[in-house]
Amino acid sequence: MSAKQLLPLSGVAAVLLIIAAFIVGGETPEADDTLAKIVSYYHDNDTDLQIAAALLALGGFFFLLFSVTLTDLFRRAIPERRVAPTLCLGGGIIFAVGVTIFSGLEFTAAEFVDDLAPTSVQTLNALSSDMFFTLAVGVAAFLLGAGVASLKASLLPKWLAWAGIVIGVVAITPIGFFAFLALGIWTLIVSVMLAMHAGSSEAAPPPPTVA
What is the pLDDT along the chain (211 residues), one digit of tens a residue? Predict the structure, then answer.
């Protein structure tokens, strides 16, 4: 498999790593849970949470790689229009930053749960539970940019482009959590579709030369 096929599959890698992080880490306590419950959770699951944080950060890296790959394809298809592809790339960067913020907070709370004051662990847990605005802005910018660029470049089916735009709008509403889930599905579809397209274009024989 060539690099042209592997790069789009970075989206699949990102989604799988983020899912694995949630599975390994389990359900974290709510911000308004009792202090004892929060501290006990991080104390009992410290190793799993550190692994989950590392997987989440790695997922953020692969999503950033997917964003760069997608943006490059858009810029090749519509070199004269850069606003939408740039918005897509900017959104991918912001999303990766948001993911690493969450992973950093979770890793810190798990690693230093025995060294920090219980209220400090509670603060880290509250931030890890509700500091979602960076992710929301990243999802919105990435999908709005990708959706608009797709419509202009005809790189993806129109229904997929419009789906990205709708999910991007939902991301900055009170039901933005569902946009985060939908982003994973959208990324999987686009990632596989682009990888298959790259493979078929490589397999196609070169056009005959005219004497």
Answer: 566 778 999 999 999 999 999 999 988 888 888 999 999 999 999 999 999 999 999 999 999 999 999 999 999 988 877 899 999 999 999 999 999 999 999 999 999 999 999 999 999 999 988 888 999 999 999 999 999 999 988 889 999 999 999 999 999 999 999 999 999 999 999 999 999 887 665 544 444 444 3
pTM over 0.85: yes
CA–CA dist 67, 134 (Å, integer): 16
180 contact partners, CB below 8 Å, separation of at least 6: 135, 136, 139, 171
Residue whose tokens read 């900055």 = 172
